[in-house]
Sequence to fold (273 residues):
Amino acid sequence: MRILFLGDVVGRPGREAVTRHLPALRARWALDCVVINGENSAGTAGITEAICAELLDAGADCITLGNHAWDQREALVFITREHRLIRPANFAVGSPGRGAALVETRTGARVLVVNLIGRVFMGLADDPFAEIERQIAACPLGTGCDAMLIDMHAEATSEKQALAYFVDGRASAVVGTHTHVPTADQRILPGGTAYLSDAGMCGDYDSILGVEKSAPLHRFLHATPSGRFEATEGTATLCGFAVETDDRTGLAKACWAVRLGPLLAESLPQGWE
Fold:
């Protein structure tokens, strides 16, 4: 299968990049499954029901979240009826919504998408390692699903790498989100799990993490409040992770960082045209 994951969508520029590029990419690359992290898609904080529908209409099969999951209070309600929107599975017991989704592709194959959040520098959350063990036991690769993609929303690259090695050979891919900065360490681990520390953001890179530069600069320079962070309005670069899986094992055969836009060096899957 061909799976495309798009990193944190930041504000209107990120949404416009998705709606502009994704429909054509879905057809051009014959994608089986598309997953998008949408936790910053409403300005720079959270997601609304209208934006969720916009990303799904553009071609997403599943939308993941992170530490900004509840920044838009309406998400607490509509996530319970939109099964394609998931929040970190290791949020506290009783949190609205669910932490995993089983996506059925156009060919009838099943892709399990699991959303996790790290604990290093990230605040309160349950153990992501214990949670992914439960998720794998409930829906193992090869019997419960044909491919498994894990969005590890975390600050520390060491925590992301540790999670990836923990599930190596039991998941198709682990991709990191949250830092908005794309890394260049895409690879397939010894057991066959594709890995990338951070997919980067779908946002304007003439910014600080997709935010107008003045507010974060003020905080660093003066250590005083600077007002609300506002998403920039420049043209966004689409960033993500492309994975091709083996139909027999569900493990990764190939993987590529994806970058398409004006400010970063282009990177696209090879042989998918």
User: Anything to note?
Assistant: Residues 26 and 59 are 7 Å apart (CA to CA).
